[in-house]
Amino acid sequence: MTLPSILRLRQLPATAIALEIAGSLVIAAAIWLDEIFDVPHYAFGAPVSPFRPHEAIWESSLVLVLGAVIVAVTVKLVRHLERVIVLCAWCRRAQLDSAWVSIEEFFLVHRAKTSHGMCPECALRFEAQQGGV
After folding, report:
1. DSSP symbols for 72-88
2. Model-level pTM?
3. pLDDT tens-place string over residues 13-66
4. Residues 6 and 71 in one domain
5. Which end of the chain has the smaller Cβ count within 10 Å, N or C?
6. Do residues 102 and 80 share a domain?
7. Does 98 share its domain with 127?
8. Are residues 120 and 108 in the same domain?
């Protein structure tokens, strides 16, 4: 898997969130269009219904609140899943979509800033190895 294709896959959550927002807005707009133009009457021959803006306000508000909740849950789930790094227990490569890449490449794709250091146990082992030379 090439780096550009991996970066395109990383854009999928933003696309899904944008589609959820757009879907909620389309449904809210359809509610208002139905209320203003009495779509069932003209499209299906239903009896004429009076203009009730309070009904459209209530229904569209409910749709928008539900859409906001769905987007919030999606964002929370995406943030949680992006924090999980699957590492091979043997070679310590990281799983990036369907590929296994070095941990350095994984951090490069995720644009993580890294540094280096040495834990106390490794420092003791290093000093012991240096002292034995």
Report:
1. HHHHHHHHHHHH---B-
2. 0.59
3. 888 889 999 999 999 999 999 999 999 898 999 999 999 999 999 999 999 999
4. yes
5. C
6. no
7. yes
8. yes
Structure tokens at 20: 């959820």
Structure tokens at 87: 């590492």
Quote the strand ranges of the chain, DSSP E: 94-96, 99-101
Name the residue range of residue 96's domain.
Answer: 86-133
Tell me the angle at which helices 12-37 and 3-10 cross, rounded to the nearest 10 degrees: 40
Residues 127 and 78 in one domain: no
Q: Is residue 97 pLDDT above 70, yes or no?
A: yes
Q: Yes or no: say if 38 and 48 are a contact pair by the CB < 8 Å rule.
A: yes
* Domain count along the chain: 2
The tokens 């909620």 sit on which residue? 24
Q: For residue 57, what are its two tokens?
A: 């306000």
Q: Do 31 and 63 form a contact (C-beta atoms < 8 A)?
A: yes
Same domain, 111 and 91: yes
Decide if pLDDT at 107 tops 90.
no
